[in-house]
Amino acid sequence: MAPRPRHFLDLASHETAYLRHLLQLTGRVKAGEFAGRPLKGRTLAMIFRKSSTRTRVSTEVGMAQLGGHALMISDRESQMGRGETVADTAKVLSRYVDGILIRTFGHDEVVELAREATVPVINGLTDLLHPCQVMADLFTAAEEFGDDHLASLRVAWIGDGNNMANSWLNAAYRFGFPLRLACPPEYGPDPEILDRSRSAADVELLRSATEAAEGAHIVTTDVWASMGQEDEQRAREVAFAGYRVDETVMEQADPSAIFLHCLPAHRGEEVTAGVIDGPRSRVFDEAENRLHVIKAILLDLIG
Ligand code: CP
Ligand code: NVA
User: Fold this and answer.
1) Is 133 one of the catalytic residues?
2) 83 torsion bin: left (phi>0), alpha (psi -120 to 50), beta (else)
3) What are the residues whose beta carbons fall under 8 Å from the beta carbon of 220, sequence distance 6 or more?
4) Could you tell me if 212 and 181 are in contact, meaning their C-beta atoms sit under 8 angstroms apart?
5) Which of 55, 123, 139 to mutate to test the pocket of ligand 1 (most atoms within 8 A of CB)?
6) Apex CA 219: angle with CA 29 and CA 62, to 5°?
7) What confidence category does residue 139 fall into, taking pLDDT thresholds of 50, 70 and 90?
8) pLDDT at 247 over 70
9) What is d(CA 284, CA 208) in angstroms, rounded to the nearest whole number?
10) Running DSSP on this structure, what letter comes out for residue 284?
11) Binding pocket residue ranges, ligand 2, CB within 6 Å
12) Which residue pairs, CB below 8 angstroms and at least 24 apart, start in 84-93?
């Protein structure tokens, strides 16, 4: 029987050493190694059931730079959008391509795709998790503070307990850094992911943004309404009113603190323009690092 392909669906199911290996590989990619088209002849299918700028472009460009090819498959253009099963899609695509990246709603769909596929599957965001993004965030943090300090950085998550918050919890679970989350009641992170992170790291769920930011090296947030939650925008604006990263919140952080945001951002909602466009913001380095991270993941999984 053929060996099971390796996937990248979440941080929690990988050993910390493997995640550190991917971060080191990302550094080598960014430094200009692997310019010799190591993925020549390889093809990646990219299934997008939600919008994307960074994930789609960084993956497509990353494959091209590595000498391979990426093809975009949207709901509108594929039979998946007309109800073809995930299992059949996984089996068919596996006969054509060397890997599949998927962005969709339910995390179970990605897990099923990976179970049925015979090629590696990469999670390009689900309602539950966004692992490639948090790897880029960790890489950005390592660039700022040094690889050796990842385990001791204090991280503050302000706002929705969404896919990014859950991904930061998984990162804390694997790297062991202290993480303070400030989320409104009713909008906390996934309870199981929260509990698991607490088995390995000092994780606190608070109600105050300023308290969460005290002494933090990284202050990070995300939109109040994620993709698929557009109808909840008004209710969320009320619930999240006290959970904006503004200058007062940043003043609580360590003097060396940086601000991260996966983007897209809504200035004036989850973050003020002064913070996201200010001197502590690293959001465009973070966005650039999506390219280097996905190239490292592609090299590792399909190279
Ligand atoms: N951060 C991120 O995943 O951006 P996109 O939605 O543009 O891919
Ligand atoms: N939480 C956001 C992240 C977008 C990159 C969303 O899921 O829409």
Assistant:
1) yes
2) left
3) 137, 155, 156, 157, 158, 164, 168, 259, 260, 261
4) yes
5) 55
6) 20
7) very high
8) yes
9) 27
10) H
11) 125, 162-164, 222-223, 226-227, 262
12) 86/112, 86/113, 86/116, 87/112, 87/116, 89/47, 89/113, 90/114, 90/115, 90/116, 90/117, 90/121, 91/116, 91/117, 91/118, 93/45, 93/117, 93/119
3-state secondary structure of 229: coil
Band the pLDDT of 77: cuts 50, 70, 90.
confident
Neighbours of 267 (CB within 10 A): 12
What contacts 297, CB < 8 A, 6 or more positions away? 8, 22, 122, 132, 135
Report yes or no on whether pTM surpasses 0.70. yes
Tokens of 98: 């060397």
What are 102-111's pLDDT values in tens digits? 999 999 999 9
2 DSSP 8-state letter: P
Nearest to 221 by CA among 176, 136, 160, 153: 160
The secondary structure of residue 150, as a DSSP letter, is: G
**Which ligand is located closest to the Cα atom of residue 291?**
1
3-state secondary structure of 300: helix
Q: Is 183 designated active site? A: no
| Atom number, ligand 2, closest to the C-alpha of residue 229 | 8
Residue type (1 letter), 255:
P
